[in-house]
Each structure stands twice: as structure tokens, then as C-alpha cells.
Give the backbone structure.
Amino acid sequence: MSAVLPIERAKAAADVRPERVGVLLVNLGTPDTADTRGVRVYLKEFLSDPRVIEDQGLRWKLVLNGIILRVRPARKARDYLKIWNTERDESPLKTITRAQSEKLAAAISDHDHVVVDWAMRYGNPSIASGIDALTAQGCDRLLVVPLYPQYSAATSATVCDEVFRVLGQMRAQPTLRVTPPYYDDPDYIEALEVSINTHLSSLPFQPEIIVASFHGMPQKYVDKGDPYQMQCIATTDALRKRMGLDASKLILTFQSRFGFDEWLKPYTDKTMEKLAKEGVRRVAVVTPGFSADCLETLEEIAQENAEIFKHNGGEQFAFIPCLNDSDPGMDVIRRLVLRELQGWI
């Protein structure tokens, strides 16, 4: 008798448990607060990831804990305050990623057994909490969507690392799929063109050059086989072709470097200085490696690099927002998700 009851209870639980599909959008991450402490907690998690800083040896730990986490948080907190969503007391990246999740859920609401949620690789809401929330709602299949058009080990792969870590602690794991990078997807390239042209048409000037600025990466990571640089080039080439621009009118650069290693070139800030000194007076910058605006776009590009350009003789600078939760941007995410859900819905 005692051996039968647990089996019967398990059968009953299986009968009432809905079979649902979870979709988890994942972006990089953000501090919980725009102060020194919040930034320090975020940076420690971010820079302790061996996918981000591959050499996590004693020397790096001394530099990280003895110098970086003592000096950098206060400065970065000031930068976050420049762009902080004070109404919701959160970073724009969190606001936008939430909106992307909500709009995706609405766009695929005809599939009533699909549940959409969102998470951050570093900070909150965590990937673990997102997976817990989806499985608690009966999702026995999970599609993870790293919100990076181009793949790199420091972004897409570390999302998978954390998902695998969480699943490794679960007895009843959901079946897993992960969306691929979409760096040359025609829908993505078309959305970029529409977004760029829409914003250019609203400007009081015509830029002489459009700069496509991607997040940087140490050159040695690419030398070891990371495909990121190749995919950034492919995105830029596809966008040039779509817009009918040659390489002199739409140029590729890399931003956000730190430390003393050589990073992917050309550098965005050095390019801004060079263009202005060469007599270019009007530029526009687009950031096709980011699916949502964040510190690196709203502060580093729209403010810091605009200042560099103008300080060196440039006159008019335009920042073109990321696709964010715009209609073209959401169409890219919706089509990507529906394609990867085939067979599940």
C-alpha cells in the first residue's frame, strides 16, 4: 500500500501539470543601484567571469580587488547617474529588456502555452531566478535567447555557461534550446536600415560618415578562435550593401576597451578624433552590436564620443538609438523566437 500511494500521487501531479514552453530573454546585466556599492557588486561579478577576463590568476585578482574595485566603481557610478531611469530607479538596459519581454509575450500571445520572461547574466533578475520562475509555471521546455546579434565567448557563451550551471543543479531539467547569433539575418539587417534611415530623416543635417561602433574585445581572444570580429564585419558588410554605402561612408570601429592589452581596431574614440582632425564635420553613430541601449551606448557613445568629436573640430554628432523595443526591433526578436520554437508550438 505504501509503495503504491507515491506512484499514484506522481501520476496525479503529472496529469494536472501543464506542458508549457518557456522563453527567457537574456541581456548582459546592470548594477541594481547607481552608486559606488551597487557598481562594485556588479563589476566584481562581471570581471570575475573567466569568459570575460580569461586569466583569473593571482595577478588579476590582486589588480581587481586591490585597484579596480577600489577606484572604478565611483567613477562608473557617476556615469550611470547620467543615464539612470530615475522614475523606475533602474538602468535603461533593465527598462528596455523588460519592455522587450512584455512586447514579445503580447506578440506571441496566440500561443497560450508559451511563457516569456527575462534575465540578466550579471546582476538581477538573475538567470537562475528566471529559470526557476518559468519551471514553476510548468515549463518543461526552455528557449534561451541571448540578446547579442554577434556571438562571442564573453557574451553568448557565458549565458550558456550560467544556464548549464543552473540546470546542473536541477533534478527535473527542462529540455533546452538556445537561439543562434543573428548577425547577418536579413530581418535584422533590414531593421537596422529602417531604424537608421528613420533617425537620419529627423536630423537637421546629413552626416558625411556613419560609424558602426561595436563593443571591443582583446585581440588575443580573436586570435584564439573567437568568431566575434568576423561576425561584426559581416554585419557591417550586409548593412553597407542594404543601404548602398561603400566602406568610406559606413565605417566599422570598436569601443569600450580597458587595460593594457591590444584590443580590436580601429578604436571608436581614436576614430572620432581622427575624423574631426581630418575635416569631417558631421557624423552619425550606430551601435549594431547592442540590442538595447545601455551605459556603453547612452553615455560612452552619445556623450563621451560626441565630446571627443566636437573637441577636435567636429560640429554635428548624432547617436542613433539601438533597436530596443521598437517595432522593427521587436519584429526581429519575434521572428527569431518563432523560428527556433518550431516543433514546440
Notes: The CA atoms of residues 39 and 76 lie 7 Å apart. The two ends are 40 Å apart (CA to CA).
